[in-house]
Automatic annotation (TrEMBL):
GO molecular function: hydrolase activity
Membrane is among the record's keywords: no
Matching InterPro entries: C-N_Hydrolase (IPR003010), C-N_Hydrolase_sf (IPR036526)
All copies of domain CN hydrolase, residue ranges: 1-259
The keyword Transit peptide is assigned to this record: no
Keywords associated with the record: Hydrolase
Protein name according to UniProt: Carbon-nitrogen hydrolase family protein
Organism name: Tahibacter amnicola
Gene3D superfamilies named among the record's database cross-references: Carbon-nitrogen hydrolase
SUPFAM superfamilies listed in its UniProt record: Carbon-nitrogen hydrolase
Length: 307
């Protein structure tokens, strides 16, 4: 299976049609390159906020409130594109208002046959908490597709191992990570999270990123990182765990997913992280013990070092 992982330069569309035209062109390029699946980054929908008046688009909360009127058109657009290009498409994320008036950062996977699957972000960043209107998701999902069982970890969620482990135990072999980071440190954290999740779970992790600058947006102002496909470092797969990585000048990082090579590592690999996972859960090692250094003659032991 060939993946097209977006390194999406944030634009400033004048209208929904303008935005749709750019998406259609980009997916057409991915289709010509043989992609079966395309992954767009977190907060992609916020690019559409550029169509609002300056006072709205410069205010994060007002902009996501205004975007609610476009949610139906957003879903219809990606449903259409997935069908037109016979491609499975992760449409980044959309901050969707809930019945309680708060918003969830929601990813949607669009299948060519019209099916949709969604996954909400489970752990909020400091920025998301500070805005005061976003809430965390409360369910973890797996998606059965023509390309196998897939899971999604939205940006910060990739830095927490138990989410990915639950997906692996549910049969996921490919984890999609739509991300948006505005500092090199943030980009590093998500990259390291992706590589660690690939190692621990012996599956592929595909990351998409926002790119470039958007001074008009408080959320998309600066964007860092590279799109990439990561794999466990083992026989038959790249020694550094990087199957493919984009550069700074292209919209897509194209990557081929070799499930046969992955299966071989599960059978004959140098390590067996998935099979050995429970070894770290033995009762004797689930709680660390403090080692107490014996006091020298005439000294009292430090009470803080007592077991």
């Amino acid at each position: 299976m060939r993946l097209a992982l977006a390194q999406w330069p944030v634009g400033q569309p004048a209208s929904l049609d303008d935005f749709a035209s750019r998406l259609r062109g980009a997916l057409g390029e991915a289709a010509q390159a043989g992609a079966h699946m395309a992954v767009f980054p977190e907060y992609l929908s916020l690019e559409l906020a550029a169509i609002f008046e300056p006072a709205v688009r410069a205010d994060f909360v007002r902009s996501i409130e205004a975007l609610q009127a476009y949610h139906g058109a957003w879903l219809a657009l990606f449903d259409t594109l997935a069908r037109e290009y016979a491609m499975t498409v992760l449409s980044g994320t959309f901050l969707l208002r809930q019945g309680n008036g708060r918003y969830r950062n929601r990813a949607c996977l669009h299948l060519p046959d019209g099916q949709r699957f969604t996954q909400d972000k489970l752990t909020l960043t400091g920025f998301e908490r500070a805005c005061g209107v976003i809430e965390a998701g409360d369910a973890l999902h797996v998606f059965d597709t023509a390309h196998g069982r897939i899971g999604v970890a939205i940006c910060y969620d990739s830095e927490f191992p138990l989410y990915a482990r639950a997906l692996r135990e549910a049969g996921v072999r490919l984890l999609l990570v739509p991300s948006c980071t505005d500092t090199p440190a943030g980009a590093t954290r998500v990259r390291v999270g992706c590589q660690a999740r690939a190692l621990e779970n012996q599956f592929f992790v595909a990351q998409s990123v926002t790119a470039g600058a958007a001074d008009w947006s408080p959320a998309l102002d600066t964007n860092t990182g590279y799109a990439a496909l990561y794999a466990p470092s083992d026989r038959g797969l790249p020694a550094d765990g990087v199957v493919a990585r984009g550069d700074g000048g292209t919209t897509w990082a194209m990557a081929d997913v070799d499930f046969a090579a992955l299966d071989e590592t599960l059978k004959n690999g140098q390590v067996a992280n998935v099979a050995d996972w429970d070894f770290q859960c033995r009762p004797c090692v689930t709680v660390a013990r403090v080692a107490c250094v014996a006091p020298s003659s005439g000294e009292q032991a430090d009470a803080g070092n007592q077991p």
